[in-house]
Amino acid sequence: MADATAIPSTLPAPDPTHAASVFTPINVLLLSLFGILVYFRLRPSAPQTLPRAPPATVFRTFTPPTLFPYNGLNSMPVYLAVRGRVFDVTSGRNFYGPGGPYANFAGRDASRGLACGSFDEDMLTKDLDGPLDTLEDLDAEQMEALRGWEERFDEKYLVVGKLVPVGSPEADETKA
Amino acid sequence: MAGLLEQLDGAISGLLTGWNVYTTALAFSIVGFLGWIIYDSADADTHPLLLARQAQASYVRQPRESAVYRAPETPHGYPLRTGLAVRPPGTPMYSAGKDGDLRDIWRRVTGEIPLEKGATSTGTAHIMTVFGKEGVTQHKVDDITMEIAIAGKHLQDRGATRVAIYLPNSLEFLCALFAGAFYGFTPILIPYNQPHLTLVELLVQTGADALIAEAGSVPLAEVSQGASSLRSIIWTVEKTSRHMDWSEVPEGIGGKMDVAVWHELVQEQKSIHATLPSTPAKPPGVVFLWQEAVGKHAETVEFTQQKLTAAVGALITSLPLAHRLNASDTFLPADTFTHSYCLCLTLAALFSHATVIIQSVAGPGVDLTLAARSIAPTVAVVSAETAAKLHSTTKESTTSALQKFAHYVETRMLTAGRLPTDTFLTKLIAPARASIGTTPGKLRLLFVSERQGLNTPPLSSEDLSDLRIYTKARIAYALTTAKVAGAVAQTNIYDYRREEKPSTKHSHFGVPLSCVEIKLKDTPQLETTDEQSMGELVVTGSSVAGGQAFLGVNATIRDDHTLAYA
After folding, report:
1. Domains of chain B (ranges plus CATH)?
2. Which residue, A133, B271, B444, B499, shows the most beta carbons closer than 10 Å to its own?
3. Which residues of chain A make contact with B43, given a CB cutoff of 8 A?
4. Mean pLDDT of B146-159
5. Is the pLDDT of residue A176 over 50?
6. Which GO terms describe its cellular component (chain B) (predicted)?
7. Does A24 contact B48 at a Cβ distance shorter than 8 Å?
8. Is the Cβ of A31 closer than 8 Å to some Cβ of chain B?
9. CB pairs under 8 A between A and B
10. How far off is chain B from A86, nearest CA to CA, in Å?
């Protein structure tokens, strides 16, 4: 009892990893989280862009044979001509496209049909290589109806070309 | 299953036992960083997709031409802007308004025609002049109206029809311009500081029969000999030289030349209380001279009043509603009034009842710091030379790395779409700023004009972005040309985008003004296809001399529908 034995130390031995405790797993996790947040904040962002707008349609001079394919078949747009002006009626495909009630007008000169209010076959010019329909034999009432239709077309659809007969000087110009 | 959950639980608690003081510090810093992100982020000044497609293209294009492009405020199918939409007092509130001419602009300045509903002002515009270091002099609008009436009556009595104005920017310049509209003569605006020979040539070329010039700046003998159609002269004399007698005519000129002195005319007729006539006749146009530098060849362009007012109206509405010129603005034209862009913007400022500061230190290459040294402008018009000079001097003065870092931080803010403001960070580390005006930070809008075809220094989008940081103001870069009053195109003031690898030395010019529409015609070298629009720039509209002008420069419309040189 009188022996001076060393008092066993009750203090815990110093933890050998205490000095490097900055790299505990939780610290590494939070440090990487911080790094990711800083990276996302400082990363330069590309300016927002829109895809390029669809190119404008080129105004064309059509003859009846060249206008004929534009009737909605083979994924072609739907055009029709009224008094020498060609309208793009693809947005009215339900009416003028294939299978629609007015499908006869697609790709053709529809002036007489609109004036007379009929979409029979005999309203369209048979001979595509011949001269255009002059509409001379229509009376005032029918011309009035035609003008009304033309105004509605002007408001709804885009004019994408003009129609000239085969053999006219303007038609030859476009061929050149 | 239970074993998996226990393993997971053990792993998480093992992870969390390593929590120590460093972990707490990291957690607080993450929370603080997130808090700062939330505090600092704000919406961009405008939606970025609005900048991604700016002008409106037509859906159909003629062969060998590009589509027609217009400003978004006057889309296809609607008429272009043709004037100021002036509504004299007494007309119903929502009527369309007339186009107006310079007389209506002056009537608005005097308060005879009130501002639009909702705009507040003191009732008139304010005009001040600055001469050197003397300080700012305020002029009463009634006195200026009287000077217009006196000068106009004098010239009308002498039978002058084409009056050449050879003055630096001054009050007399504006008086003579407005007098031309009221009294029926055509002002010919000759750029100041020409060599005498060139001045005589220009007087002959434009067919002037009267001249208003600064006393002592023009050798009367030479000029009257060279320009034989000249009949009357009015000298404007600065205050320090008024003791001399300027009304005497040197021998050899004879009685054909009538000489008068401006301040003497005003003095004599002050008591008559002259008022402006109100004739319904259409006032004649204004002649502008487009010249690369003094002494060189000049192109003469005559604009009718309607073209000028179309340009003024379009420039007013080219700014978004929140940033338009209003009665609380101080407007400084630091470019000469003989440039139609600067003149139209000055007329726009007068039309909006802003305070216009006229000073003679104004021209293509003037130093903006010098021009604004005794005033604090909020809006300024400068030429590309002035902007380039401002940019290079401020860039050279950025030396320290801290300033460069602050500049970099503010450039990032601009790229994110916001104009950098003064926060506590910038008070600690400020980037280089150009000192403009007596009170720093008041400048809010800077109009920079590029004169097409006259070899003006190019400003790239990097330069413009740097200028936004140096001046802490929004910048509008405009393309101006001889045959178009005002400008052809002007950038959106919210467009802070920079190009990493620009294809041309000039930045893009934004959208056309609402009074013009532009298209590109194919040339042998450049053509328009489905992928690109390139060609010679053609401008049509209500502010174009002759209705349509071929500018003779190759341009392209980029994917975001803005105009740029090819």
Report:
1. 50-79+312-397+432-565 (3.40.50.12780), 139-302 (3.40.50.980)
2. A133
3. none
4. 91
5. no
6. endoplasmic reticulum; membrane
7. no
8. yes
9. 87
10. 12
Do B27 and A22 count as a contact with CB atoms less than 8 A apart? no
Mean pLDDT to the nearest integer, B365-372: 88
Q: Between residues B553 and A24, which one has the greater pLDDT?
A: B553
DSSP-assigned letter for residue A77: P
Mean pLDDT of the A32-52 span = 87
What are the sequence ranges of the domains in chain A? 60-173
Point out the residue among A24, A37, A47 whose CB comes nearest to the CB of B20.
A24
Phi/psi of residue B186, each to 5°? -95, 115
Q: pTM score, two decimals?
A: 0.90
The whole-number pLDDT of residue B443 equals 92
Q: Tokens at residue A126, please? A: 């048979």
Q: Which residues contact B506 (CB under 8 A, 6 or more apart)?
A: B450, B458, B459, B460, B564, B565
Give contacts of B530 with chain A, Cβ < 8 Å: 55
pLDDT of B318 higher than 90 = yes
Interface of A with B in 150-169 (CB under 8 A): 158-160
Enumerate the residues of chain A whose CB falls inside 8 A of the CB of residue B61. 56-59
User: pLDDT tens, B100-132?
Assistant: 889 999 999 998 888 877 777 788 889 999 887
Q: Read off the pLDDT of each residue in B550-564 and give the average, rounded to a whole number.
A: 93
**Contact: B60, A160; criterion CB under 8 Å:** yes
Q: Mean pLDDT score of chain B, rounded to an integer?
A: 89
B16 and chain A in contact, CB less than 8 A: yes
Query: Which residues of B206-328 form beta strands (DSSP E)?
Result: 210-214, 232-236, 258-261, 286-291, 298-303
Summarize the confidence of residues B394-420 as an average pLDDT. 88
- Short-list B381, B493, B370, B383, CA closest to B436: B370
Q: Which of B26, B408, B465, B562 to mutate to test the interface with A (most CBs of A within 10 A)?
A: B26
CA distance B533 to B419: 32
B19 contacts A53? CB cut-off 8 A? no
Contacts of B348 by beta carbon, 8 Å cutoff, 6+ apart = B312, B315, B316, B325
For residue A12, pLDDT beyond 60: no
Whether A164 and A84 have beta carbons less than 8 Å apart is answered as yes
Report the share of chain A in percent with pLDDT over 90: 22
Give CATH superfamily name and number for A60-173. Answer: Cytochrome b5-like heme/steroid binding domain (3.10.120.10)
Judge whether A20 is closer than 8 Å to chain B, CB to CB. Answer: no
For residue B455, the tally of other CB atoms under 10 A from its CB is 8
- Which of B59, B61, B62, B533 would best serve as a mutation to test chain A binding (most A beta carbons within 10 A)? B59
Would the pLDDT of B536 be above 50? yes
> Which strands form A60-62's sheet, in the order they lie side by side?
A60-62, A158-163, A85-88, A79-82
